[in-house]
Structures are given as C-alpha cells and as structure tokens.
Amino acid sequence: MQTFFLHHRRALLIGALIVLTLINVVVLATSNVMDYERNNIPIRTWEPFVWEASSQIVILLLIFFVIWCVEKFPLRYGKLWRHGAIHLGCSVFFSLIHIAAMVSIREFVYKGMNSSYEFGPWVEGFVYEYRKDLQTYWMIVAGIYIYQYFVRQLQGEASLLAAGDNEPVPELVDKLLVKKKGKEFIIKLKDVTSIEAGGNYVYIQANGKTYPLRETMSRMQQRLEGSRFQRVHRSYLVNLDAIKHMETLESGEHQIVLNDGREVPLSRRYRNTLKESFV
Fold first, then answer.
1. Which of the four, 17, 101, 266, 277, has the lowest number of CB atoms within 10 Å?
2. What is the pTM of this model?
3. CA-CA-CA-CA dihedral for 245, 248, 253, 257, to nearest 10
4. Cα distance between residue 185 and residue 70, in whole Å
5. What is the pLDDT of residues 80-107, one digit of tens each?
C-alpha cells in the first residue's frame, strides 16, 4: 500500500482534490438553496451550483500556483518574514485571478441561460472576496506542508555521505544516509537503480523505495562523475549495472527497463553515449 501510494501519489492527489472540489460544490450549493428557501427568497436552483462550481474549479486550478509559490519561496527559519510578505503578495494575485475567472465563468453561463450576472462594484467585491481568499490561500499552503511532511514520513529523506569527508562540496560519494521515521541507516550507492529530478529535489530509487534528496540534477551528476551512473534523460540518471535492457517503443521513442522492473525514458541525445558505455 505504501509503495503504491508513493508511486502514484501525484495521480492520487489530483484525484482527491477533484473529489473534494465536487463535494464542496454540492454541499455549498445545496446549503445556499436551503438558506434561500428558509428565508422565502426566490432563486433558481441552478444558480447556487454555478456560483460554487465557478469558484471551486478556479481555486482547484490555482492550487498549482500556490504550490509554485511554496517551492519558490519556502517558509523556513531565517526567511520566514521576507517570504511571508511575498506570499501575502501572492495571495493578492491569487484572489484577483480567482475573482476575474469566477465572474467570467458566471457571466458566460448566465448568458447561456438567457439571464445576466452582476458582480457589483469591483472594489467592494474584491475586499469581500479577498477576505475569504486570504484564508483559502493559507489553508492551501498549510495543506501543502502537511502533505509534504506525510510523504517524507513514508519515504524518508536522504543525505549524501562523502567518502572520508562531511564537507558539503560536490565530490564523489559512495553511500547515502537515509532518515526515516526517526531512524537513520545507510544505503550503498551500488544499490541505487536510478535518480529522477523533480522540482527542488532528486528522487533516489533504491531497494524498491523512493527517497527525496534536496539537490539539483546537475550537481548530483557532478557528484557521481566517475561512478557507474550515467545521464540518460534530462530528468534521469541510471546505474549502468541496474539496466536490464533497452527498447524502442511504437512511437519511436526509446526507454530503459531496469532490473527492478521500472521503466525510464531514454533521450536520443544520450542514447549513443549510453551504448558506448557497454562497448
């Protein structure tokens, strides 16, 4: 179960967000309908669904913007106030896009229903919506950090152990120090099958598990120069000893199949260099 989640966590996360969005739309829209009926205010049933769907769908898409903000300006000790101020600015942009897109969707749908939608004065409307959007923005930020912590607890984090030296310089390493659930243990580099780039991290595959390391792919490649690791794609390094075979797909693209069954894309740029490694 843990391995399945880690290998499919992006698809599962997107699926969960979509389901949560649909639930919010239904719950909030039906609540609006009930409130209007309770107060004897006439309303067409479809209107609250348009209001909530337009808002929730735009927020769903804006989550990726918030993720970018968190990755670009992490809230860490020493940068908390400066990055916090930047996030405040990001929340204003978040709200402006949310309001503009939400109103555009509503106007389009109302026009299709032979009706019209009035947002009202923009300044007052922005102040009203921004109060809610500010709370939503920080809830998303908190959710991102909680999710990242949860994933780190499942897969652990890796740091590099240089041979005979602990200085953080780009030198060849032969071991990884893996921290997981309060425990530390060492993985030999020869047990690593591949390394994949992803945002500010590289993801190390070893012994059927995935470990994130806060490092760039280019710096990682520099550290591993002279080892059995070779670049096969802009986002992948592979252990030559872990390659089972290479194959050509029907699309004409190439890929590598590793001993653990994982498939890694092989760029034409690196294909000849890889073949020369086995000559």
1. 277
2. 0.63
3. -20
4. 30
5. 899 999 999 999 999 999 999 999 999 9
